[in-house]
Amino acid sequence: MPKLRKIHIDQAVVGMYVASLDCDWTTHPFWLSRFSIRNAAQIGMLRQEGIQTFYIDIEKGRDIAPPPAPAAPALASGRPPHSAPNRTTPLSQEFALARDIVQRTEAITQTLMKDARLGQRLDITALRSISSELSGSLDRNALALRMVAQMYSKDAYTFQHSVSVALLLMILQHHQGAPHDIVVEVGLGGLLHDIGKTRIPLQLLNKPGRHTAEERQQMREHVRFSQMILDENAIRSPIIRAIALQHHERYDGTGYPLGLAGDAISAYGQQAAIIDVYDAITSDRCYHQGLPAPLAIKKIFELGKNHFDPQAVRDVVHCFGIYPPGTLVRLASGKLAVVKRHADGDLTRPEVIVFFDTVRNQRLKPESVNLAIRYGPQADDHVLRHEEADAWQAQLPDIQQLLLDSH
Question: pLDDT per residue over 336-356, tens digit each?
Fold first, then answer.
């Protein structure tokens, strides 16, 4: 008797043996209902045909990845979506811890990328351990890691982009109430989402300026290389694979490598697609200056009309706000402030710390102000232009310390 297991399409990986498609043979495009999955295109075809579940024979092909270790009892039931973080560590203390964890994450990820470029086996154990530490920081005081993520300095280096995407994905999942083990897997997915770029020639990867059409096609190959590296290292987690292999797919079917559309893209893939673009357009590159967060959010909304699932866009904006913590803003009065937090009720009117008067050119005693209450819905508050913010930043007190002192 064959050993059969029913799986979801998100769990499908190359190397599995399909024993039954759990549907009538006339409703799918395959000649046989029993076959080995030899490439990602077959999985994409299953998605496009709306096949959500099917049976695999685990004696003839790969099984699903073993389940993660059980979460601690307090996390087993998860948190309700959008619940307030369970803060057990003071912000200043957790901020220092979170910053240290992120620095170690960067070092581990950089080493991992070097190993991958040399064709060596990846140290997933170290990566999983540091991802677990990041998740623990979110549980102790989520605002600390949010601040670190917002102020994280990154440029064109792949490993820095990967760390930033991982942080943002983990913050999003934590905000939505995901249990610890899911937050960890999402973090791993973010850290590995561009691992295939280690097989792209460095002169192409680091080219100053925009790529030609031919070079863009070469760059697109990194997704296929990512799949190869995940397979070579027996990384079968459906969450990690969805993030790595689907973050360039688009909701309207115009993405790559499979041209998946709509719900054929997993929820993790849709979130990763949005955050990958958000991080790219807020980062400095040799051919463009990163946009401030509010303008980047506006761009994401525009792309969300076609490229992204509108609900996924709303989830991302609801989590990070239009003005993330640490964003420098100028009020209609000419006073400068730094965003402290955003309220769920009005994402355009965050709570800020006012600390400088640009009209009188003088510092003010830092004051925490809830714009929705103090100024009301008609207030004409706006974010500083990026270059203007840079000019002020050099003259002003430490933004990070202002935030820490306010809690």
Answer: 888 888 766 667 778 888 888
